[in-house]
């Protein structure tokens, strides 16, 4: 029996092996007792009993960097940025990677809404309607603010914890967990964030990012996510 599967052009898949290894594939076939994997640069055969699961990779197309005020939900992002002292550009970059600004997005792990909150996380932050853009952004930004405080404004660890959970960051010695999805997520969000910060900031962006103060200046308990702090 032969079954063939091809991943969409912008949607790769992971083949998870029992030894913990994750292989990124663009397609695969089940040939008898083996998986015939199609990967960039070649193919490989893996015994069926060594494959634990095949998981889709959540990848969204990055949106072009524009003023936050001109993007979807810009006013809500500004309000949350001011309330929780988190850079509006960082919030926007996370939303772009998490849901591509789709307020009804649902992941295979049941994360929901613009900032892809798990139901338990949403409940923790008092969210009543997880698909409501304002509630979702408020809770997601609150969570980002807590993580920034926890990791002393280390952006890579903050994003890794947002994606994989703080317990996994702790498990790997306060480092980005060696999961392909998490590593890719951190890279994508940081790239988008840096792109947004690389150009001349418009007046509206300056205003949005003027309120938060850095931890070094003796500001509020919640830290500021600013480009000068992140490496």
Q: Can you give a write-up of this model?
A:
This protein is α+β, with helices and mostly antiparallel strands and 231 residues long. It folds into two domains: 55 residues, SH3 type barrels, CATH 2.30.30; 150 residues, Lysozyme (Orthogonal Bundle). It has eight helices and seven strands. The protein has a four-stranded antiparallel beta sheet with strand order 1-4-5-6, with no helix packed on it. Strands 3-2-7 form a three-stranded antiparallel beta sheet, with no helix packed on it. Strand 5 and strand 6 form a beta hairpin. Helix 4 crosses helix 5. The chain is elongated.
- Which segments are poorly predicted (pLDDT under 50) over 5 or more consecutive residues? 1-11, 58-63, 202-229
Q: How many domains, in number, for the residues?
A: 2
Give me the Rg, rounded: 19 Å
Q: Note the gap between the termini.
A: 51 Å
What's the count of strands?
7
Largest sheet: 4 strands, antiparallel
CATH class of the largest domain: Mainly Alpha
The average pLDDT value, as a whole number, equals 78
Outline type? elongated
Order of helices and strands: EEEEEEEHHHHHHHH
For the biggest β-sheet, the strand order reads 1-4-5-6
What name is given to the CATH topology of the largest domain? Lysozyme
Tell me what portion of residues adopts beta-strand conformation: 15-25%
Summed up, the helix count is 8
- Give the structural class: alpha+beta
Determine the fraction of residues in helical runs and give it as a percent range: 25-40%
Give me the CATH architecture of the largest domain, please.
Orthogonal Bundle
């Amino acid at each position: 029996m032969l079954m063939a599967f091809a991943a969409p052009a912008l949607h790769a898949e992971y083949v998870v092996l029992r030894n913990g290894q994750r292989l990124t594939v663009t397609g695969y076939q089940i040939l008898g007792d083996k998986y015939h994997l199609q990967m960039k640069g070649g193919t490989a055969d893996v015994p069926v009993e060594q494959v634990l699961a095949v998981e889709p990779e959540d990848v969204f197309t990055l949106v072009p960097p524009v003023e936050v005020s001109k993007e979807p939900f810009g006013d809500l992002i500004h309000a949350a940025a001011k309330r929780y002292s988190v850079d509006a550009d960082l919030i926007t970059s996370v939303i772009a990677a998490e849901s591509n600004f789709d307020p009804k997005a649902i992941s295979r792990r049941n994360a929901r809404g613009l900032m892809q909150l798990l139901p338990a996380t949403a409940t923790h932050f008092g969210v009543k309607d997880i698909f409501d853009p304002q509630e979702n952004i408020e809770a997601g930004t609150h969570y980002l603010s807590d993580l920034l405080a926890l990791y002393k404004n280390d952006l890579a660890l903050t994003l890794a914890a947002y994606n994989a959970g703080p317990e996994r960051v702790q498990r790997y010695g306060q480092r980005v967990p060696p999961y392909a999805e998490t590593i890719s997520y951190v890279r994508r969000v940081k790239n988008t964030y840096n792109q947004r910060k690389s150009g001349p900031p418009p007046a509206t962006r300056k205003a949005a990012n003027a309120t938060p103060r850095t931890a070094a200046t003796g500001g509020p308990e919640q830290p500021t996510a600013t480009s000068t702090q992140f490496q």
